Structure formats: structure tokens, C-alpha cells
Structure prediction request, 117 residues.
Amino acid sequence: MENENALLWEVTFWEFFFVTVLLAGGAAYLTGRAIARAWQPNLQLFVYIVLLAAAARFIHFALFGGTLLTLHYYVVDLIVLSAIAFLGKRITRARQMTTQYRFQYAGTGFLNWKARG
Prediction:
């Protein structure tokens, strides 16, 4: 059966949503949060997400019969997981800046902060 959205997910949308967004996305968010709490650089977060995307491809392969070694779907998983991870890092960093450095920074939403003037 030909899938009309074959550019984003391999078998079904629900498989993609469950494995990539819920399972691996949750792990990516927590990884971004941990990197922010440890004040580590973005490059280290990206290396972890590269490995997590490979693990997500393996879950697609082992549980749902997807292809293991496909660059296209690996890149899709990598983009989705990177967005979630960097969002988790940014949310945590904004909270850190506005709570730990309350005297210097004020929150301007859950993603940003500004210097007190």
C-alpha cells in the first residue's frame, strides 16, 4: 500500500508519532533539560541527539518492521528530535536565568529572558 505522506513517516502516522514524538521525543526533551542544567554546549546536545535518532530508527525496525539503515527517515527523526531537544534546553535555560539570576534577568515568556534595566 502506497503512503501519501511517505516523506515524513515510513509505515503509519501513529507509529511515527508513538516512537519518534512520544518515546524518543520525551527522551530528547529530558536530554535537552539535562544539558541545560549542566551548562553544557549545544554541540554536546546534538551529539546525544544523533545517537538517540539512531536508537529511534532501531525501535522502528525492531518493533514495527521499518527499515534500519535509511538516511531519509533517519534525517527526519533527527530533525524532529533536535527540535524537541533544543526546545527543552531553551525552556530550562530561560527558567535558570530568571530564577538563579533573578537580580539581573527578568522573564519575557517561557522561552526568553531580558536584562533588567
